[in-house]
């Protein structure tokens, strides 16, 4: 039975099977060795995620074997400014950290050997958020800022360190590339195919680091290229 | 618990989460309502598929609820010519039909209400198969032909009709478009993003026809756009 890798998060995760999406690439990468299970909930913050993690991830996988890994990517909505158009998604920083701890603790208490990988929110391009903003829409002020997203990204990395979990800091990694604002983000917040590619590569690296690389997972059923052309059926005897 | 849609087939299925792939698009389409499970085995013909269907599909899903639907797409390898480079993948037409029947019967005997959708092999562009051919490679003759693929496609449609199952005849549908050879096929055999799009649309149509459309499947957890901005947590009480 193949192991599964569950992707739990907000829209950065829910969209992960769209064009060039990091979830689809992951499913393609592990096409013969692991199932990639999508549990993305657009718009959700950690307050709501902590309320539903049991129903969305634990019960959803209850009948199947324990997942090998779960990625957890929240914070882009929590970091919405408390006095702007997306205020109802805002979660204060200290509560974000405690919600994230609760989510991780639920996963590791249920499956002691599961590899939990925290992914920070991506950076925000403030000017693009004015152009693409949500809600009433004509304030001329962004509802999310890069500065706020950065605080939540650092908090996410801190929680991972506290709990001894892996973290992928896409907020920092993306900003190392000149032109990150438009090459990685399509509306100042959500990922372009190029941004998805970066997340995919980081997740593959983290999984490999956790001994869940392609080399460590057996292929499900014999590979065609390894069958004996003179007696292919023999491969199925073993 | 979300229903699952299992994709069982050869490389046309194994590659379905690649660039623009029909499986990835399906997972994106059902991102909040169904799990798309990949069971693609490149190079496999129906002889091998019939040997492994229980292990690959039935046991793989044994602990989880019955899948709502299974797509079955084989024939591109069975239709390899018996005297050319891919001869060890060839399966005679009458055996192809009986293997396909056995696969379908296994699925419907295990899950009486499962929606099985047969997908024919795609058309073949003979000239491209000479350029991209497998094996020894310098015969100047294609190892697969469109004529042979067409016989297997018709046989696939016949088996679906016999068993009262839905069939998607991509061999015929693709050839209705002028320039199908290069717009739908990248090497005379495997699909381009455009070819993947056609398969995706046909599968979505077949699932909708089987009462498994988006409108018929509930979203997993409240949609953000339907939450009350003044009391979002209320959505989780129900």
UniProtKB/TrEMBL annotation, chains A, B:
GO terms for molecular function: hydrolase activity, acting on ester bonds. It holds the Pfam family Lipase_GDSL. Keywords: Hydrolase. Belongs to the 'GDSL' lipolytic enzyme family. This is Uncharacterized protein. It comes from Leersia perrieri. The lineage of its organism: Eukaryota, Viridiplantae, Streptophyta, Embryophyta, Tracheophyta.
